[in-house]
What does this fold into?
Amino acid sequence: MADTTTRQRPGTMRLVDALQYRLPLAGLVSILHRGSGMLMFFLLPFIVWLFDVSLTSEISYQRFASVFVAGVGFVPAWFFKLVVLALIWSYLHHFIAGVRHLWMDATHAVGLEFGRQSAVFTLAASGVLTLILGVKLFFF
It folds into this structure.
């Protein structure tokens, strides 16, 4: 009779095995799509606050704008800019990856090569657009 204390159950994976697995780009884009959606969901109160403060009055808009120049309390301005940059990336990535998924569903383009090419496009487009908007956010 075999020793069952050292054997792995079928279908389970050790952490060492999981870290050695090379995820294809399409899988990475899929995981990032879910992560960007969660990030937008959890930062939704911050988004609502930004929207509310920016539209309430001229004075509240000035307060809103000063957050990105001087910060609030002990929180520096660059931290708020990083949070907004994370929101920018999550929105752009989620939107582009969502269009990618819709395109694949509508055209039934589910081949390996199209999946790889569209994943590269999704990562590149969201990265470049985030970089452009990040430069505008931090330097202009």
